Amino acid sequence: MESAVSTLCNRLSVPTKCDKIMIGPTAPTSPGAARFASPMAHGSNSNSVLVDQAQPDAIALCGQASYRSMDINARGYEGRSRLHEAAEAGDITRVTELLQGGADVFMRDENGATPRWLADQNQRSDVVAAIDVWKGRLLDRFVEVAGRGDAVAVQHFCDNTSITYSERVQVLNAAVQGKCAPAVECLLETYGYAERDIDSLVQAGVGDNSVEQLLLSKMLFARVNHWEPHEIHAFLERHPSLDVNHIWNGSSALHQVVQYGQFPQDFGKIRALLNSGAMPNVVNDAGYTVGALANFKGLNKGLNNVAALFKQ
Fold it and tell me: Is pLDDT of 312 > 90?
């Protein structure tokens, strides 16, 4: 086991015992966008990318290309990938090759099993250790590029890497501490976050107004249909400069209320948003303004009251 794991570590340029992941202020802060440009963007062969260079390319460690366009993660019997099969068989050489080729180490089969779980069930501790090294290095690099404010690399990771919730929080923390609004926005668009975790970041002090605005507008968008009208009003009063028209996943908070609200009891939510600057003419990703969406959804007789609110 030692030799197999050491071999993988050497290929990754990491020690056998991976360093503890550092987030927040401890993450590297030097510019990295140019150094982390995707090799695929220049038409290079992903297999030719060296992952054992002095400073490994973050995107190379993520697999060099989009999983959506790679058959390396194609599902076979019971939804298993090639990595599942290799891990279950205990083929450490094949596991290493697949990981370096872009195999999704987090993928679950139809039974919910990851490659690591299958290897562990078959007592292949060498494969388990190798996968742990890779996962640790991958997440470490994800946190690093988020802390650097490398929005391009963060977008690539978001597109190609499925991670656990606690790991999502680590990466978001790093991006917030790095004060990189585009990276924060990408993470908030891609992953779901609990209100308490977003709120804790705000309460801890973001130190950057644009990043704080993103966190607050995401919180509003996520909770607007769960809060009572007075809660929305209180939230908006505490944050008078908040842009209530920010678009998340193709919709504004006002779209969310009209599409999923209950009327007439939710008119108060619409009033609170309008009073804080919500614009009825904002268009969602389906091409609807709020008024058009209300008509399309065929809301009850209260539609006239909604239209009247928009005209005020």
Answer: no
**In 3D, which of 100, 7, 105 has the Cα closest to residue 47?**
100
| Domain regions of the chain by residue span | 2-173, 208-311
CA distance 103 to 39: 17
> Phi, psi at residue 114, to the nearest 5°?
-95, 165
Would you give the end-to-end CA distance of the chain in angstroms? 72
Contact 91, 119 (CB under 8 A): no
pLDDT number for residue 297? 63
Nearest CA to 224 out of 191, 181, 268, 193 is that of 268
Treating both helix axes as pointing N-terminal to C-terminal, what angle do 181-190 and 151-160 enclose, rounded to 10 degrees? Answer: 10
The predicted pLDDT at position 305 comes to 56
pTM: 0.69
Tell me, yes or no, if the two domains 2-173 and 208-311 fold the same way: yes
Kindly report the CATH class assigned to 2-173: mainly alpha
Query: Using CB atoms within 10 A of its CB, is residue 59 exposed (0-12), middle (13-18) or buried (19+)?
Result: buried
Instruction: Dump pLDDT digits (tens) for 79-123.
Output: 999 999 999 999 999 999 888 877 888 888 999 999 999 999 999
Fold of the domain spanning 208-311: 1.25.40
For 200-225, how does the pLDDT look when each residue is reduced to its tens digit (9 = 90+)?
A: 999 998 878 999 999 999 999 999 99
φ, ψ for residue 111, nearest 5 deg: -95, 5
On whether the CB atoms of residues 187 and 216 are closer than 8 A, the answer is no
Token code pair at residue 142: 């994800």
List own/partner pairs for 2-8 with CB under 8 A and 24 or more apart.
4/92, 4/126, 4/129, 4/130, 5/126, 5/129, 5/130, 5/133, 7/96, 8/92, 8/96, 8/99, 8/130, 8/133, 8/134
What pLDDT score does 255 carry? 93
Pair of tokens at residue 172: 């978001």
